[in-house]
Amino acid sequence: MTEPTVETEPTAARSFALRTRASVDVFTRILTHGPIGRIGIGRAVGLSQAAVTKAVAPLIRDGFVHEDIATQRGLAPGRPVYPLSVVPMSLLVIGVKVNPGEVIGVATTMTADVLHTAHRAVVDNSVAAVVEAVAALTVELQVALGTQADRVAGIGVSVSGDVDSANGVVRDSPLLGWEGVRLRALLEDRIDLPILIDNDVRALTIAEQWFGVGVDVDSFAIATIGSGIGSGIYLNGDVVAGSHGVAGEIGHLPLASEDLICTCGRRGCVEAEASSGAILAAVRRDTGLPDLTMQQAVDLAHGGDPAATRAFDRAGTVIGSAIAALANLVGPAIILVTGEGVVDYDLFERRIREAFAAHAFGAAARCLIVTRAHTFDDWARGAAASVIRAVVRQAVPVRNR
Ligand SMILES: [Zn+2]
Predict the structure, then answer these.
(1) Ligand 1 centre and the CA of 344: distance in Å?
(2) How far is the CA of 328 from the centre of ligand 1 (A)?
(3) What mean pLDDT do residues 241-259 have?
(4) Which CATH number applies to 17-88?
(5) Which of 133, 204, 243, 388 has the fewest CB atoms within 10 Å around its CB?
(6) Do 215-375 and 90-205+379-394 fall under one CATH topology?
(7) What are the tens digits of pLDDT across the range 324-381?
(8) Distance of CA 269 to CAs 15, 170, 330, Å?
(9) Whether residue 95 has pLDDT greater than 50
(10) For residues 146-157, b (16+ Cβ closer than 10 Å) or e, as one string?
């Protein structure tokens, strides 16, 4: 088994079955580009209009795709256009992000629109406490969904670090202090739904590929800044997962001072200088104020305090160099800089752009840098997008069907 497993449950979600590769491609195109006509779909996925119609017919019949017959009125005479779109409420998913000290969950539609959000504190980061919290959060979201809870097709759980999605194992998560945790198996004992475990940044990249900046470009990357620093890469039509499950770990590029020790145990990592924890530690050390909060450090920097400003400048320079390395290696059309650290992006921006300009090689510098603040809920939505993609792809009857 090499693919993440999501099997259908004996619920409303069961009737969703994409039985051929063509129907997977057609449904995916409608999901990511709808409302869209059959000609547009056929052109995009390389099928005749008749083949598109054949693939779409059962999806319309079973209520997963809506055909907007009304919009043909008023159009020019000739070939009628019936735009197709996915019925958002036809299938639902739950996405959960595991953070140190907290789990955050969202219930979303098939089109990744958030319906309900739930947060739960975790006393410690022990595996047992997190499993308990994810189970409780799932029940809370199912209750919030009420009678629609039987439409939930699966749960995506995202965790930072080295995650073996195919086997549902968190191999190494320094932020949580976890190694070799069989998270999917543990959750399956508590939750009666298909479960997908994924790396958090990879999940966020899937959300952007299907529902965000990646919809109409052939390559993009996202760089996340905040408590951790990472990147997700979309290339040649798919999110890069890495042959061994690791890819895009710009937080562990050795671009910072060798004197700094990273949470991963290595020296000189980008994260050791530029994660929010590393910045706070530097400001505390250089101001001699050991009890400073992150918000106070941000306020000091905004007020022009030299020690605080220096810490954010150094972080911005290292992040900009890492983003340039990403552009030089992959050459994406767009790099989306996001993460909770982007809330205070003004403190980094100049140094990030300077370092990027200094290190981006040749035409790689044409890469568009876009910034967007996001919340922890967006991470949970990423986990939801990851399971949406798995539901769509795994519905192909390749195993035991
Ligand atoms: Zn590291």
Answers:
(1) 23
(2) 21
(3) 90
(4) 1.10.10.10
(5) 243
(6) yes
(7) 999 999 999 999 999 877 778 888 888 999 999 999 999 888 999 988 877 778 999 9
(8) 48, 21, 20
(9) yes
(10) eeebebbbbbbb
